[in-house]
Amino acid sequence: xxxxxxxxxxxxxxxxxxxxxxxxxxxxxxxxxxxxxxxxxxxxxxxxxxxxxxxxxxxxxxxxxxxxxxxxxxxxxxxxxxxxxxxxxxxxxxxxxxxxxxxxxxxxxxxxxxxxxxxxxxxxxxxxxxxxxxxxxxxxxxxxxxxxxxxxxxxxxxxxxx
Length: 162
Known about the structure:
Layout: H1 8-27, H2 32-46, E1 53-57, H3 63-70, E2 74-79, H4 82-94, E3 100-103, E4 117-122, H5 132-142, E5 143-151
Helix pairs in contact: 1-4
């Protein structure tokens, strides 16, 4: 699969420019499709993550990340948008849940150790990245043997194990 041709810098710029409005809408519950369709299906699909070490790839401002942390998962969250990560970190200071937020692009998760996650999740984010193949390679690098990859937005949707 070839990269889409959209430079990562453009993806990051769009995320930064839209971060404040996006966070405001999500936090007010105005993303009705997410609240009533995507999230219920996504969380049912992933099952119980209590006690598992989970990476949320393309976390945005961390709304779903916080929901997963509240359900007992140990969360790390990455997004290419610096502003989205700033907003997530602000929420972490306001309500500490033990979430680690980092700026990173999907195909370069080099800030994360090999074989360090039980589950890698992504909800409606991988489709926006320019290099799906590179992203999947990085996901499997950081995923522990027998771990699950749960993307909820692209043609490879499903649970994958090594």
